[in-house]
């Protein structure tokens, strides 16, 4: 009955036409013909749907199908199978009719839909979604097979009511606006076929996690690439390329193991496929217009990446195993202290397999895992700025991680969190996790609370691709997909290479102590290279001769490079791959440059950054601030600290009288003048746009529209967008400081500053200070001029808002306190008399007390032929102190002191009493009546000065300010000791004795006293708070008492230390 009904409704033209057959023989039939089919002689009938017109013939075909389905045409087989599954003939006829009307859809799909209940359709969609969401839990990710995970019931068809009987039923899956398996134009398949393809896609050697991304377009983009009907096969040529790269990775490690058996190298064994994966990723991203890649990674596999990805000469790598200090081509060349070979970085230009060039930079990194992450991002962002890469497609960042570090180190989240922030994003980072499945000696179940080490990335809605690292072709596929994702969507992406570690934490570590079962499995396990060779030979893709040819060539080159390493001598390019042309090393003499600015330029830039657009409506208090700043410049008033900063950055308006500038205006002047000279200025940190203490106001907000206006972004016509960048950061010190350090390392013609909200909080970024800033040049020969602004000062705000821990930064100075620099007196007045003292130092530490000095120290960072990090203990109280202002004449380029050539930062500020004007000669007129010379730094000067005036001791006590604490101004301290031959030196500070600058200053002052023939006692008289565990008291009353006492002791000429 069903067969006859179907025939009557389908008609003589066809019953059910497979799309492929219709494309071969198109024809049309009228409705009348379908209603009254005409019999055709059996001899004229053909064995296909296209000519079937006789019910008798169809019945005969059915009998043949029942006996042997393979004896009839495939299209007839599908027709009879549909009837067996209960598809009504009417549905088949309607499906064909729809096809004839031009709908591009398989008639079988519509027929199948008619046989699916709504519940079945819903369950099918739920089953597909279960695989999309949780299929990775059933993927074969562990190459060792030790990861026994419980069966996921959501992936079982029985959970949705399907039985064995349903496996060969045909179903149509189609959902509106979906790609992949659920797209509307997919052909019908049996449930068995659907399950097989789902398992191949989601439960094979690759596990995809992306359904947490709340963006349909991005999910569809991925589905289109991974839910394909069939995977795109590797060509023979691609297989050969992959084998070659895998052979290099494996044989390089074997070569090192044989040549340097007792050396630590943190080899890549167990994850050799990382190299072909990285190289495939680089090939693909370069094809998509990327030209620069900045890489950061830990020590595991670093030598392999250096040799086989970045292409550092292997002869150089082999020579580093000798442990001997390498010398440059010039014996006098600065080579620093060096670092172990698996911490070093380099940069090279290298071609891709498609004939394009890419510049690869692998940044040096300490053993502190993940510490380099945000440096890589900062350097990448700087590359994008200097190349006008606003689309962020020409420069990209790649970070490698370990599994324990990715889930355990907080800096990972700080890094991921930057990816979507406007002034920090670099258009997406590709994260490659070398997942050893063990962290040093700690199992995953003891090192994280989540199923995967990569789960932290879900918080940022990033796609995660897990892959069995023994499957080199799978690794290549996901690395290429990651490159495409990054270039398309400009967000981060994570590739989790699930592998193993052949040795212990290093090659001489015994892993059987803590992971006996894992290492028993590893010792019986063939590596990825061996497995791939066997696979290629088995499938016939390559011959044994081709494989042997690859191996012989690799071995020959390794041997050749090893021989070359015996006589290897580094070149300058080896030391400074991103060479800054014309910049001096610590061993080279750099001339002193002046930092004063022509008065007309100061006037010009000042008018520019204090002028607001007429249509802009600022807050009334901010409008008043800018009016006052403009008045400082135009009416002869003093310039404050913030304006001095802006002048240094740009170049402010100026006046002709004895104008004075406050701190905020001085900062603006520093920024503005540097901008007008063509430099880039970038300031970031928490709340820096307004300033923690509401003093900067670098970004203004329209009170009616909310629009932003950045005055320093309009210093001169044609100023490049973001040439001045000021941006509030995320609530991160560690990550953001690292970012700005990386940014500063890209180009020397930029003033890059990071400001802590309070200096007290800087210690959460201590790793960056300790491992990079203080020692980066010595270890890795990389200079940076980064400026760190650390608000510091005792104002009674408690233990966490008083001290930036000055003592820590001073302790890390590499200066010998007992050796005075050689002084060339003939160059005294030019500032060149100290030779290379400041160039030889690892960094500079200053504590300015005047806006003008702050202005000059910022400009000094750029106006020199080398770069050094600068630590500024910036003020809080002084930002609005009525006495903390500077005459504008101290900003211009006309020196005020007799004999001095040029205007520069003052490392020491002389007392303003006694014989005036004060001589700056090395042997000034002596003032024998002074009984005490108080040396101090920072804001305590103003309290000492006020109290001295109140007590009338101007002629008995001199107050000298050390503006630069490191390198120590030995020459100027000696001059002041000579000036006051009868005065007892005393050091006064607000901090407790065991903090602050005292223990830094004491041995250096004693060296100066001995140089001046003074009797020394082994200690310098101290006036300050007694030793303490806490930086300060939390009680305002106690603070005031302590502050009054230390000021009184400093000015009490009878005061002696009680111990």
UniProtKB/TrEMBL annotation:
Q: Please name the InterPro entries in this protein's record.
A: 2-oxogl_dehyd_N, 2oxoglutarate_DH_E1, DH_E1, KGD_C_sf, ODO-1/KGD_C, THDP-binding, Transketolase-like_Pyr-bd
Molecular function, one GO term: oxoglutarate dehydrogenase (succinyl-transferring) activity
Q: Which domain of life is it from?
A: Eukaryota
Q: Where is the Transketolase-like pyrimidine-binding domain?
A: 661-881
Keywords from the UniProt entry: Magnesium, Metal-binding, Mitochondrion, Oxidoreductase, Thiamine pyrophosphate, Transit peptide, Tricarboxylic acid cycle
User: Which Gene3D superfamilies does the annotation name?
Assistant: 3.40.50.12470, 3.40.50.970, Multifunctional 2-oxoglutarate metabolism enzyme, C-terminal domain, TPP helical domain
This protein is called: 2-oxoglutarate dehydrogenase, mitochondrial
- Name the source organism: Tetradesmus obliquus (Green alga)
